[in-house]
Specification:
Elements lengths: L21 H12 L3 E5 L6 H14 L3 E6 L6 H16 L2 H7 L1 H7 L2 E4 L6 E4 L9 H18 L3 E6 L5 H4 L2 H10 L5 E7 L2 H6 L13 E3 L5 H13 L4 E2 L1 H11 L3 H18 L3 E2 L1 H14 L1 H9 L3 H13 L7 H6 L5 H13 L3 E4 L2 E4 L2 H10 L1
Parallel strand pairs: 1-6, 1-7, 2-5, 5-6, 8-9
Antiparallel strand pairs: 3-4, 10-11
C-alpha cells in the first residue's frame, strides 16, 4: 500500500515532520510569552518560518494570540500597514468583540472596512489615491496591538517575517516608528525574523532604532545525528535501509541545509517507492540529486547567462573546491579569479543576488542543487 511521503519541504513543516530545534523552540516560546522583542537571524531555507510556526502553535495553547506578517509580500508602505492592522485585528478574535478594543485605532485612522459575512474576517483600506501619505497613520497602526491587548486584557505574539525588507518602504523612519510603538507594549511579544543575516545585523548597530531592543538569535544548522535518526526511522517504517554512505552523500550534497535535506530525502522516498528498493546507498543519492539538478536546468541556465565571467568563475571555484581553498593562489589561478579583492567583490555581488549566503563567515550556495548543476552539467 502506498504510504504518504513523510519528508516535507517548500512549506511550513509541522510535527511529526519537524526535526529537532527543541532548545530553540523552548527559548523563543519563553521569550514571546514574556512579551520580549526578539530578533531571529537565519539564512534562507534554514527553517525559521517553520520554527516560528511551531512556537506559535504552543503559544496559542496558552491562550496567547498570534499573527504573522511577511514584510516582503507587500509592495508599498500603505499595503504593509493595512495588512499589519488586518492581521492583528483578526488575531484578536471576532470583529464584534475586537471592535471595542480597536475603537481608538478606528477613531484616529478612520479606515474603510469590509466584513466577510461568511468568515467574519475584516479587510481594511486606508486610501488608494496616489496622494495618500501612510506616514501619519503608521504610529497608530503600530500602536494597535498594544491598545487591543490592554483593553481586552490578553497577550499577543507577532512575527514580522523577512523583517530586513522593511526599510524598502520608508528608510529607517519606519524602524523608528515601529520601535517607538513596540517598546511600550507590555503584553505583546515580537519576533523580527530575517533571512539575510548581514542586513539584519546592520539593523542592530548603535545608530539604528532597534539597537539593544531585545535579544538576537542566529539559527544554526541541525546536527546530522538528528537528521540521521529521523531519516532512518522514516525509511524503516517501510522496511528500507539507508546506508551510512547514502546518509553521508545526502548530508554533503544538501550542505545540511534543512530545506534541502528534506528535499533530497523526499525525492529518495519516491525513488525507492517506484523502484521497490530495500537498500539505498550512495549511488542512489547521486542519481536522485542528479535528477533534481536536471529538472532545474532551464532555470539555472537563465541565471547563469545573466552573470559576469568573474561571477561564473567564482561559482565554479566554490562548487568544485569549497570555501577552504577558495582564496588560495592555486584556486585563483586555476579559475582565473584575479586578486583576492576581485574575488571578494564577485562573491559579495552573488550574495546580493541571493545566489550565495554566509554561514559562520563562509560562503555557501543558497540552493545546493545549483552547485551540482555547475559541477555536472556545465
Amino acid at each position: 500500500m502506498k504510504r504518504k511521503n513523510p519528508f516535507v519541504y517548500g512549506e511550513i513543516v509541522k510535527r511529526p515532520q519537524f526535526v529537532d530545534r527543541g532548545e530553540e523552540i523552548e527559548r523563543l516560546e519563553r521569550d514571546l510569552a514574556d512579551a520580549q522583542k526578539v530578533f531571529l537571524l537565519s539564512p534562507r531555507r534554514f527553517g525559521k518560518s517553520s520554527l516560528v510556526g511551531m512556537v506559535f502553535e504552543q503559544l496559542e495553547r496558552q491562550q496567547i494570540r498570534t499573527a504573522t506578517v511577511t514584510v516582503s509580500a507587500y509592495t508599498s508602505y500603505t499595503q504593509f500597514l493595512e495588512r499589519f492592522a488586518e492581521k492583528v485585528i483578526r488575531a484578536g478574535g471576532p470583529w464584534q468583540k475586537v471592535k471595542e478594543w480597536a475603537g481608538r485605532f478606528v477613531e484616529h485612522v478612520k479606515p474603510q472596512a469590509g466584513l466577510d459575512l461568511q468568515t467574519g474576517e475584516i479587510t481594511l483600506s486606508f486610501g488608494r489615491g496616489s496622494d495618500f501619505k501612510p506616514e501619519p497613520v503608521a504610529a497608530e497602526v503600530f500602536a494597535l496591538p498594544g491598545w487591543m491587548t490592554e483593553k481586552g486584557n490578553f497577550q499577543m505574539a507577532i512575527c514580522l517575517d523577512e523583517f530586513q525588507q522593511i526599510t524598502q518602504f520608508d528608510g529607517t523612519s519606519v524602524e523608528a516608528a515601529l520601535r517607538t510603538a513596540v517598546q511600550q507594549q507590555r503584553k505583546v511579544g515580537y519576533v523580527f525574523a530575517g533571512s539575510q543575516p548581514s542586513l539584519m545585523k546592520q539593523m542592530l548597530v548603535p545608530d539604528r532604532p532597534f539597537h539593544k531592543s531585545g535579544p538576537s538569535y542566529f539559527l544554526e544548522k541541525i546536527d546530522r545525528s538528528e537528521w540521521e535518526r529521523f531519516i532512518r526511522a522514516r525509511f524503516q517504517e517501510r522496511d528500507r535501509i539507508v546506508t551510512k554512505d547514502a546518509l553521508e552523500r545526502l548530508f554533503s550534497l544538501s550542505d545540511l541545509i534543512p530545506y534541502d535535506v528534506q528535499r533530497i530525502a523526499h525525492e529518495l522516498w519516491d525513488y525507492a517507492e517506484l523502484g521497490s528498493q530495500r537498500t539505498l546507498d550512495g549511488t542512489d543519492i547521486e542519481e536522485v540529486v542528479h535528477q533534481l539538478a536536471v529538472t532545474q536546468s532551464d532555470y539555472y541556465e537563465r541565471v547563469w547567462e545573466q552573470l559576469t565571467h568573474r561571477q561564473r568563475a567564482a561559482l565554479q571555484a566554490l562548487a568544485a573546491r569549497g570555501t577552504s581553498a577558495l582564496y588560495s593562489e592555486a584556486t585563483r589561478n586555476e579559475y582565473r579569479l584575479g586578486p583576492a579583492s576581485s574575488l571578494r567583490t564577485a562573491l559579495a555581488s552573488l550574495d546580493e543576488q541571493d545566489l550565495l549566503d554566509q554561514y559562520k563567515g563562509s560562503y555557501f550556495f543558497v540552493d545546493p542543487m545549483f552547485a551540482v548543476w555547475i559541477r555536472e552539467l556545465r
